[in-house]
Amino acid sequence: MLLESLVLCFLSLVLLSPFATSEQCNPQDKKALLEIKKEFNTSEVLQNLWNPKTDCCIWVWIECDPTTNRVTGLVMKFDEPSNDIVGHIPSSVAQLPYLEHLEFNNLPTLTGPINPVISNLKHLKYLVISSTGISGQVPSFLSGFQNLELLDLSLNSLTGTIPSTLSQLPKITTLRLDNNKLTGQIPNSFGSFRKPGPEIYLSNNRLSGHIPASLGQLDLESIDLSVNRLEGDASFLFGSKKRTRILDLSRNLLAFDLSKLDLPNKSLTFLHLDHNYIYGKIPQVLNKVNALERFNVSYNLLCGEIPQTGDLQRFGVFAFYHNKCLCGSPLPKCK
Ligand SMILES: *[C@@H]1O[C@H](CO)[C@@H](O)[C@H](O)[C@H]1NC(C)=O
Ligand SMILES: *[C@@H]1O[C@H](CO)[C@@H](O)[C@H](O)[C@H]1NC(C)=O
Ligand SMILES: *[C@@H]1O[C@H](CO)[C@@H](O)[C@H](O)[C@H]1NC(C)=O
Fold first, then answer.
1. pTM assigned to the model
2. Atom of ligand 2 nearest to the CA of 263
3. CA–CA separation, 222 vs 215, rounded Å?
4. Which of 94, 116, 142, 233 is deepest in the core (most CB within 10 A)?
5. Name one GO cellular component term (predicted).
6. 207-258, pLDDT tens digit by residue?
7. 296, 297, 323: which to mutate for ligand 3, most atoms within 8 A of CB?
8. In sequence order, what are the beta bridge partners of 200?
9. Cβ pair 189, 198 in contact under 8 A
10. Per-residue pLDDT for 21 more than 80?
11. Is 274 in the pocket of ligand 3 (CB under 6 A)?
12. CB 116 within 8 A of CB 139
C-alpha cells in the first residue's frame, strides 16, 4: 500500500511537470507558434493541440534543438489529405528564425502563393510544401538558401517558369517540382548545379523545348522528366561512367538514336523511355545491366532485333510493343 501511494505521488508529480519544471520552449518561439495557431483558427485539430500552458517543444509537429531549445522544425505532415488546415502559409513562420525544417504536406486547403516571408528563414535545410493547394510561381528567393538540401514543391498548382537561379543552391541534394503546371524550358543553368548534382524530379508539368545539353555535365543519381512536352535529344543524359539509378523520360516528344547510347550500366535500376519518338536499335549493352528492375521503351520508333543473349525478355511484351519495327522475343520473331 505504502509503495503504491508513493508511486502514485511520483506519477502525479511527473504529470504535473509542466508546472513543476521550467519549460524548455523559447518564449518568442512559443509566441510565434501561438500566432500560427491563431492564423489557422478554423482548424479543429489545432484547437485541441498546442496548449499554451505546456512546453512547445513537446507539441505535435514541433521539433526543438536539444541544446538551444529553439524551434528548428515545423512539420505539418498528414498521412491522408486533410482539409482541416484552411488558409495561407502563415506569416508568423518568419518569427521562427531557427527553423531548419518547414513542411506543409497533404493539406489541399492550404492555398495562396508561397509566402515571401519564408525568405527570412536563413537556416532552412528542408523546405517541403507538397500536396497542397498552393499556387503562383516558384519564387526566385528560394535560391538564396545557403543550407537548403531538400526543396520539395511537388503536387501543388504552381505555374510559370522554373527560376534559373535554383542552380545556385550550394547544398541542394533533392529538387522536386513535379506534378505542377510549370511551363517554359528547363533552365540552361541547371548544368551548373554543384557536382554531381541533385536528384531532379520535374515530371507531370508542361515543360517544353529542348533539354539543355549542359545537364549532361552532371552525374545525376535520379532524373525524372516524364509527362512533359520536351523535344529533341536526351542522349547526353546517359553515360557508362555515371551513377544514374533512375532515368524517366517517358511521355515526351523526345527524338534520338538509342543504338549508340553509352548506358550507366553499373547502377541503372529504372529506365522508362516509353511514348517518345526514339529511334534506332536497342543497344546490346542493355543486356548487361544486371540491376535493371523497371524498363519500358514502348510507343517509340525503334527497329531491329531485341538483344536475345541476356534476359531483357523478363520485362515482357508491354515493355517493347508499339514500335516501328522492333522484333524478336518477347515480340514476334524477326522476318
Ligand atoms: C479567425 O481569425 C480571423 C482573422 O484573424 C478572424 O477574422 C475570425 O473571426 C477568426 N475566426 C474564429 C472562428 O475565431
Ligand atoms: C559497362 O559499359 C562499359 C562501356 O561500354 C564497358 O566497358 C563495361 O564493361 C560495362 N560494364 C558491364 C558490367 O557490363
Ligand atoms: C510500358 O508502358 C506502356 C505505355 O504506357 C504500358 O502500357 C505498359 O504496361 C508498360 N509496361 C511495363 C512493363 O512497364
1. 0.90
2. 2
3. 12
4. 142
5. membrane
6. 999 999 999 999 999 999 999 999 999 999 999 899 999 999 999 999 999 9
7. 296
8. 175, 223
9. no
10. no
11. yes
12. yes
